[in-house]
Each structure stands twice: as structure tokens, then as C-alpha cells.
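Reopening this ticket.

The earlier resolution said the output was attached, but the attachment link was broken on my side. Pasting everything inline this time so it's all in one place.
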Amino acid sequence: MKKWKLMLCAMLAGLLMMAWTAHADGDIKVVIEGQEVQFDKSPVADQGTTLVPFRALFERLGLEVEWDQATKTVVGRGNGVSIKLQLDRNTAVINGEEVELAAAPRAMDGSTYVPLRVVGEATGRVVGWDGATRTITIGEAPKKGVDPLTFYRAFVEANNAEDLEAVMAAIHPQSPLLEGGLFEAEVASGFEKLDVVTEIEQIEVLEESDTEAVVRSVEKSVNTNGRFHMDNRADLALNLVKDENGEWKIYALQVLGIVYLLEEDALTAEADLDADLKKALEDVLVANIEASEAEDLEAALATIDPQSPAYAETRNLLGTMFLAYDIDYEIELVNVIEASDTEAYVYTVQTAKKIDGPEFNDGRYKQVHRLHKQEDGSWKVYISYTIGFELLEPLQ
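Inline output:
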């Protein structure tokens, strides 16, 4: 008789312990992604851990449910997640790795209960607790945006892959780069004609806030398909701004410095071109220099492509120069580097010496000019690159 009493006392003690450490809490609500989950049995609080019937939880989180009767194991799979929870075992197996549990799954009142938090977090969601309303919330984790450097590296790779859609998607919709469609046209044209490989040699974040960043990038760009290109090493400052979705986009670009990686032999070698085409291209540069020396603004602008992004700036600069100075220009070399049906590159070497005006450094300029063919068949300068300058006389 005493033996039975002892056994009964032990059983009662065990039941009392369970009642003390785990008790149904019908006041706890569980809300997953804005919708309250209706469990067939109330959640259970166990030493600070909430356990709930597994099937409703797993299915609401998008997991397919399996039950292994032999091992008493609950399995949930879906969306790249695998969760295994065994009754009365204080570890779970999540995506193949063991994870310690604050409370073990258990069978209660004919149902299998599992710890809610570990399951919710295993699916990549955020689990929260509102003590005032006694509500557990499970929601999608906020998207972690890429950092500015990762974003810009991806932009450079998109350029190297000649992925026009990805390149344009990286530009902020309010960026001045998009005005007039010139940027997209230039990128598309480059992808069609060239095979430029850009290598980032140095990159750093100069400034960063929650919505804006300034990135400095030193990068080398070289064409690899044999056609002429202004190969260069550029020091760039990029203004990045987050768009309405919180993603980094390029808003503006500033060239802090640039060195052109061009061999003199490539600039001065005589191209195998039709003589008339060659002369027509050379004549444009000669006319430009002669108009500048004559201070004939209209004639000088007649050699510039009206579609040039530098047209207005060139007009203002020439007008200012003509008012302030009297300059003697002399062409030492004009050489056509390359020409197609619509585009050409011409190399010039010229000197500029002041005759009258404010302080001025007489010098020798080396330039590469990109010309576009117009609808009327004429050629005009689209943009000019100064690739070298030397003083004719040392500064005193």
C-alpha cells in the first residue's frame, strides 16, 4: 500500500510540475503577416516560451508538414527551409544544423506543440511580442539593402556584361543623366560598337546617410575588340540616392581626374581611309581652328554638332575667350585615327599663343576629337578630349 502511495505522490508531483511550468494561455494571440491565426487549441506558455499546435503554424508559414510516427518527429519544408522537431528533444535541426531550444516540443491534450519563435525565425521572419495586447507577431524581415559599394560594383559588372537594362535600372529616375535620353543612347551605342572592360582599382565610401551616399571609385577602362576607344584611368565621385523602394541608384557623376591610356603610335598612324573622307574630316578641324583665330563665333559653332552635350558650354566659352583675348593658333598635326559611316576620331596637335589679353599660359594642346556625320552628309565635332598639354615657355 505504501508503494502505491509513493507512486501516486510521484505522479502528482510530476503533474504539478507540468502545471507549474506549462499552462494554457488563451489570452495570447498569434498574428502572422497581419492575420490572426486560429489554433484549435490555445497556445501554451512554458518558462517564457510560447508553444502552439504545430500544423496550423507550419501551414500558415508556407511549410509542407510531415509527421514521422516512428521517431515522433515533426518536419516542415518549403521555400528553401527545412525544420525538424522531435518530441521532448531540446534541439531542433534547421537546414541541417542543430539548434538549441528553450523548450522542447511536447504532446499535450492530444496535440503536438512546438516552440513558436524558433519556427518563425527559421523561415526568415521577425517574431515580436506586444505585452500590452499579449500578441505575438510574425512578419517578413525588412529587406536588407545592399551597401553602396556592392551596388556600384554590380553596376560596373552590368556594364562589362553589356546589360543595358540593368545599367539603366541603376540610374535614379530623377537623375539629370536621363535628360534627353543622351546617356542611354551613348551606353547603347558603346555596347554595340565596343567591348570595354572596366576594372575597379580602388573604391571607398566618402559619405553615407540613410538615403544618400558619395562613393569614390578609381577605375581603368580598356576596349578589347580592336576599335579605337578613349581608354582611360578615371577618378570618379558618384552621388547615390535611394529610390522610393529604398534601393541605391546613381544620381550624379563627377570626374575628379582622368588619364588617357593612349599610345602615340596609335594616334599618329595613318588610317587606311578614302582620301575624300579623310580630307573632309581634317577640314572640319582646320575650319574650327581658323574660326577661333578669327574670333568668328558663328563659324566656329558651325563646326560643332548641335546635339553635342558640350554645345552650350562651348558657345559660352568661345564667346568669353573672344571678348577677353586675341590668340594665335597654329595647327602642327591633324590625323584621322578611325572613321566609320557615321563616326570618326581625329587627333590634333596645336599651339595657342596670346597676342593680347589677361594672363594666359601659351601652350601646346594634344586633343582627340570625336566627329558625327550629320543628316546632310557633313561632319561636325561632337566632343573633344584634351589628352596632353605642355607649356611653350616655363613659368617664371
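Reporter confirms the inline version is readable. The longest helix spans residues 2-21. The first strand starts at residue 22 and ends at 24.
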